[in-house]
Every structure is written in C-alpha cells, then in structure tokens.
Design a protein that fits this description.
The structure is a homodimer of 210-residue chains. With 210 residues, chain A is an alpha/beta fold. In chain A, 45% of the residues lie in helices and 18% in strands. Chain A is built from nine helices and nine strands. A five-stranded parallel β-sheet of chain A has the order 2-7-1-8-9, with helices on both faces. Chain A has a four-stranded mixed β-sheet with strand order 4-3-6-5. In chain A, a hairpin with a 2-residue loop joins strand 5 and strand 6 (83-88). In chain A, helix 1 (22-32) packs across helix 7 (175-191). Chain A is globular, with a radius of gyration of 19 Å. Chain A starts with 10 loop residues before the first strand and ends in a 5-residue tail after the last helix.
Chain lengths: 210, 210
Amino acid sequence: MTPKKKTKGTLIVLSGPSGVGKSTVIAELLSERKDIYFSVSYTTRGPRVGEADGVSYHFVSKEEFEGMIARDELLEYAKYVDNYYGTSMKVIREKLDAGVDVLLEIEVQGAATVKRKCPDAVCIFVIPPTFEELSRRLHGRATDDEQVIQGRLERAKAEYRQIPLYDYLVINDSVQSATREILSILCAEGCRVDQRLPMIRNQIEGVTAL
Amino acid sequence: MTPKKKTKGTLIVLSGPSGVGKSTVIAELLSERKDIYFSVSYTTRGPRVGEADGVSYHFVSKEEFEGMIARDELLEYAKYVDNYYGTSMKVIREKLDAGVDVLLEIEVQGAATVKRKCPDAVCIFVIPPTFEELSRRLHGRATDDEQVIQGRLERAKAEYRQIPLYDYLVINDSVQSATREILSILCAEGCRVDQRLPMIRNQIEGVTAL
C-alpha cells in the first residue's frame, strides 16, 4: 500500500536486540511497501559466505571508507574490531529529496546519531513480547554457544536503556502484528499536518491564506 | 482490531468542514473499533425529528446545563442562538482513566479548547480531496438552498485556517481510505514510546533500570 505522494521522504530508523526478528519484519515490511528504499550499510570487513555485495553490505576498502569520512558523506559510522561500518548520507539524502521513504536498520548508538542529525527521522525500537522470549529465540537458533547468547542478552539490556530516545516501540509478538504496527506508524507519519500541508497547499491556498 | 491494553485511554478529536463526510467515516471507524467510546454532546436545544436522546445529543434543560458549567464538569462548551452545546469532562475522564479511547466530533473552536486543556489529545482534521469536491458534495445533498451552502463553504474556509492546530490531516477521498488512515493514526499513537513504556514496565524493570 503506497501512501499519497509526498514532497519529501521519511527517514525510518529500526533498531532492536539481536534475536528479536528485525530481518523477518523488515522483509515483510518491504514486501508490503515496495516503494521504501532499504539502505544498505558500508563496511570494510570482508564478505562472509552467502553475503552479496550491495545486499548484505556494500563492501569497500579501508581507503574508500576513509575517503567517505573525509568527504563527510556518512550519516553515522563506527569502528568495531578494526573494521568500519557506516551509512552513506549521500544516497539517503538523494532518496529523501526525491520523496522516497528510506529505511535504516541500525544499532542504538547509530540511531542516536541519526536522530541528532535528522530530528525528523522516525525511530522505531522493536522488542520481543517478553525478555524470556528473546532468550528462547536466541537459544532456538542453535548456532551460537551459551557464552555468545549471554553476551547478546547483556547487550540487549544495554539497548533497552536507550528506548526513551526512540519515537515508537513495536512489540514483535508475531511478524504480522509487528509489520502491521510499523505500516500504521508510517501511514500516520504521512498524515501529520506538517507532512500533509505542503501536499495540499494548492487546495488550501485556493481557499484561504495559511 | 483492538489495540494492546493501555494504562490510559487516548482522547481523539475529529473535526472537518460540513459535508466532508465525518459521520460516515465515524460510523465506519466505530464498526472497526468497537472498543472506542463515542462521546455524545450535551445540548439545551430541543430534539429534532429522528433525534434520540443519548444518541444524537444528550438533551438537557438550561438549568441542568448551567449546573454542569457551575460544577466545572464541561471540557468545552459554546452558546449558539440561545442554546448551549458542550462536552462532559466527567464521563470522558472516567473512560480515559479506565483505559478506554474516547472520540469527540467537535468543531474547530472546541477542538482548540480541548487541545489546550488536554495536550495529549490526538486531533485529526478531515478534508475533502479538493475544495470543489466539498462544494459538489454539499450541492449533491439537495437539502439546503444555495445561500446555506455558500455559508457552509465560507465557514469551511475559516476552519481550514485552523488546520495547523491539529496533529493529523486526513483526506477523505473515500470512506475506506479515510478510515484506514484514522485507524493507522490510532494504532501508531498506541505505539508511541511514552504510551508503551508503562505497558512493558515489567519486562523492562526485570531487565534494567529505565
């Protein structure tokens, strides 16, 4: 369901603890809203098995990444274990200016940076129905050992403390209900008076002076 | 579709020019969200043919109404042509405290009063797709003469100037799309961090200190 044509796109930031099901919700969201541009991050780490360039990440050299930093082309970036990870401001700005909604999946520190630089960004935090359920889902993956899982749960606790920085809190008790809530949030954001007034300026100016 | 249980109801204010189709949209909305309490106004004017007490209005005497004013029981009221019209604060407060969402259909001056007294109220203005369409709908009714219609259109222009006081602008190009937009707005408002944090306090307090 594509919303009515806007003059400027909405920047949507999605965060949530590892294991909450962000990827599944995002896939469902993008299948419902094919007009949304999903921003792929840049990284200097090498691709893992199954990771395609431009899909999982844009894989670039350290020199290329530092060039983007020098040219101030990044909305946010961070360095983990000698590798850079970041979001290109340039592409996002072009899309937003063309009226396209842009979705970023980003961790809490990056989200805080984005919110500071783009106060109009719509920031959504996804949580599981209960913390026990998060633990159950992480154990259910059966790919990580107990120490890794405990590390993820500890990190989740730290992320929970940042929830007040977000605009919306979506509970992922099912992919369908979480997706429906996000679709509603995006629809509602498009109905905000400040978003819609420019769209209907002709109707209003023909009638009165606002 | 009933939203997740909230600790406090949302006060929803709906306005829009005469002829925009508010009643039809409200009927559709209430059929989708049977949990919403639609607040019926109080008036001292006598019932017209087909108007039932407690449905169209609560019909009360001038003494009863002035008693409500004296006891500060009204959220907003106005006097038109020697008759009072107003909204009972008492009933609305009880419903909101019980976690029930309350819908008011109210004109722009009343909406401004409500927004001032209840800043958390979600104020939605409904407009037609074009102003010409509003004129066409008013003429299509075939119940009012041209002078009455022109009066309504003039009043609509004055109301348009108040749009910036509202939170959301819904375009009624079809009952279905307008209703869908309002449902999305209410769903999104229920997902706001300040609304949801109390709901999930147990989950969060079990995990961290917010």
